[in-house]
Sequence to fold (136 residues):
Amino acid sequence: MKIVRITALLAVVFATTAALAQTKTKMETNKIEAKVLYDAFKQGKEEPYKKKMQISGIATYVGPDVYALPSVELSESKDVPGRVLCVLPFSDYLQLRKVSKKDRVVMEGNVLGFADEYDIVVVKQCKIIEINGKKE
Fold:
């Protein structure tokens, strides 16, 4: 009787471990560097990325976008112009005070598309996840 219970318990543990591993893999596939995302859109391979994602990069601009919405532009280095424009909801304007140019930032938002006129990937409904390795 005890062997049956132990076997059943082990089956539950293995199933839970496998489920957690799959969840972690799915979460990791929704993370991307700003330059990689930008390059995908420039090459016309954007379809897998048009979803909610976490984008990491160096903040090259912090402030209002062309519509006066709070935004952070991310790139691969401080010397390269912004590749990804992360736009926060208007109600989160004060969140911008936490971010400075040259900070390493992770943002999460919905990847919408590419703005040809500005040569930048647009991500809306963003929130700040991490600044210089510190979770927000």
